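--- STAGE predict ---
source: upstream dedup step, 1 unique chain passed
mode: sequence only
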Amino acid sequence: MKISIITVVLNGAKTIEQTIRSVIGQSYPEIEYIIIDGGSVDGTADIIRNYEDHLSYWVSEQDDGIYDAMNKALSHVSGDVVNFLNAGDEYFDRDVIANISRHFADEPDTDVLIGRELIEGKACRSYLDGNCRSVYFDTFFPHQATFSKAILYKDHGLFDQGYKICADYDWILGVFSKGYKLRWCDEVVAVYDPNGISSTPASIAEQYLISKKYLEQSDGKGLMDEAKDHYLDMFRRVFFRNLIKNRVSNDSIKGCLNELLGNRTVDIWGAGNIGKHINGFLAANGVSVRYMLDSDRSKHGSDSNGTPIRGFDRDDRVYIIISTEDYENEVTDMLDKAGLNAGKDYMTYTDFSSSVTGYLIGHGYDDGGFALMTGLRYARVGRQASGNI
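--- STAGE serialize ---
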């Protein structure tokens, strides 16, 4: 079985070599490697040229975007199975392709095999539990970890270039809707570079429109209201994450935080990346954080961007913002047992992000085109600290 691996890149001189080396270092012998460079001007083509003896085909020329480049690459495929590994991404280890080939050999009726990928050290879970809800709502189909039989790109078609961000999601839903066999494997396949095309309100809107299209065509029409709620929540996550990650500061945000927190002293629970982002976001908008709280004792005594890290010690003068969604239930249980009250003494990440997002959207803040594209408008849900929002 020949595996065709495709890398599309534009101005990826800093990352393309690690991706190439990850592919040519695979233990599996039957690999066809194709690279499409969109006319880079940063030396990417020179790096690719150094490895052209390992490539079945490559070209450096302008194109009409990532999906035009992916479609162009598909016209040069001669393998049995296709995988797209973007510049900056890598395979988890040198035996990934060998393992994938065994999966297809063991289950030859598989049309698409989807594995797991590692993002910032965390293995994202596999999806699909056999019902349409998983496919239409769990919209994480990482093409870095997706292997499709090449014949599908002839039988089903290429990527729809009418979509600028999520044409791969449209393609996979189209394949699923036609009855092709999708299988998930519980193995980490790829290491994903989160500095590529990031999630934006526009990308969430595009996903919603794609999901809506296939729900209307299938027997999943009864899930439409649930789909709306799901994508509104995804919008909340992306909108808020971009705010805190970029430390956006303006009068609207300052007014929101003033109504939400008042003059209360704030601690942040969780000294991980999200906690660091929230700390920087609050500081940029004039809210000082006293401590970063963390249950990991090895972090105690150190600091996060100048804010000391310590363990939890109840102080009724302090308001706590929990910075993790993954473990917020465990943290809230502990705070509740310590006699603290949700809303009055602390706020979860979900409630904090919902309050900030809902306040800003309700006051006319730019939502990145989400409402215009989808006809959906985010409204705040959950608890708040002061009761003013």
